[in-house]
Fold this sequence. Notes:
Residues 26-412 form the AMP-dependent synthetase/ligase domain. The chain is built from 17 helices and 26 strands. The chain is of the alpha/beta class. Helix 1 (22-31) runs parallel beside helix 9 (249-255) and helix 4 (105-114) crosses helix 5 (127-141).
Amino acid sequence: xxxxxxxxxxxxxxxxxxLSPVSFVERSAEVFGDLPAVVHGARHYTWRETRDRSARLxxxxxxxxxxxxSTVSTMLANTPEMVEAHYAVPALNAVLNTLNTRLDAPLxxxxxxxxxxxxxxxxxxxxxxxxxxxxxxxxxxxxxxVIITVDDSEYRGPGEPIGEHKGEHEYESLLAAHTPLAQxxxxxxxxxxxxxxxxxxxxxxxxxxxxxxxxxxLNAVCNAVTWTMPQFPxxxxxxxxxxxxxxCFPWTVALQGGTHVCLRRIDAQAxxxxxxxxxxxxxxxxxxxxNLLVAAPEALRxxxxxxxxAMVAGAAPPAAMIEGMARIGIQLTHVYGLTEVYGPxxxxxxxxxxxxxxxxxxxxxxxxxxxxxxxxxxMSLRDPATLNEVPADGETIGEIMFRGNxxxxxxxxxxxxxxxxxxGGWFHTGDLAVMDAxxxxxxxxxxxxVIISGGENISSxxxxxxxxxxxxxxxCAVVAKPDPKWGETPLAYVELRPGMETSEAELVGxxxxxxxxxxxxxxxxxxxxxxxxxxxxxxxxxxxRAKSASAIE
Length: 553
């Protein structure tokens, strides 16, 4: 028998609408239609124009048969077309697959085949690798997606043709040929997939992380709340939009009626120029990009607008970098997350009392991965074997686990990996950390990055933080090197700042002053460190070089 609160109180279109970030675009076009939405070189679009362009793209895709469950892949830089794809594809209840622009042809072909891409939107810059990938798709997988090519006004390289491909369309001509949809509707079910993003493959195939409209909506809101992002932010795209959908910021900017300041290339000059020209107030990046700005000549930083806020994730920011950002007047917020939780899912919330601490203590506090996002239901440190929560004593190590609406649906076509990652009602990150009494989490290492030397556990992050405090170090990574006596010892790979020099002996001595003796690197190699396109250091390559026991993942 139903209770009084179930009688004549039905869910109707008037009182229940599924959550989708597509609704943010419609609202901004409706109420802020005359305000700037996208800036890219000479191209400027208002929110009304951006909504119109996105609705024209959606109409064109619908004409190609794209609808619920169809996949649209993109091979795009941070351009207006990439913003529009984030609005148009979900509006059709289709699934967006943003390809990493640094991948090789076989992996691009593998991913497009795996997610069954029906359409590919690609920039002319990537024509050579895309032509190879399409050939592999045709020859090995018998798949021929519709191709839409973008001629970006800001691309200065050779505009090579994709090659002979039936069904190729030019982006602007396609938009002009279609009447915009009357409404960017979104899905009928908020649990429907909005995107599939591939994790990095190391020894096996990458995994396709499937996310849903509800999670994207909630994390977009979380971004604004966490950052106290004001209405009408001016957001600079230094983070690739292909990286877990730009941490949901394409939708966060739409939520706030802000301006996307697009940037094709990442270098200090271009970033500082964009900040000055467009009065940028927010941007996101991996630590390597922030370090690039800290290391830039002082002259490049002159005239920066005040109050710039930056978000850092991808690796624990070293204290030296946090201190460096403070010196140049950029307020840094440290967030933590993974593709499986839509990008950021935890934040080192800066309490008012922190401002009274000296810069060293502020760096320590901000260096923690922090507390769960406001709309993430659970973040816990647990024993991965028993799932028992470990004490919040700042010493006991556990695995970081999440649960809630901002967790992926699962891995595409990989039931075993999905069940393993979500076992026990928690998403298992693989990151090992401690939690202090304030419930702020501090990562000690990835489970595979702990160095066990003579029976003692060494955190590679702790050693790296010591190295980053040397003024000559631009980037570093520490991995385990096999040792006949100790089992493993720390091996450091180091990149130096331009124009600066140091020696192995000097760096070892520097670390010895900051660390216990057994934690000090036994060897330092001055080599270029492999990184992803988002600036994240690829330790698996370094472990392979060093022949670490954990090189096989």
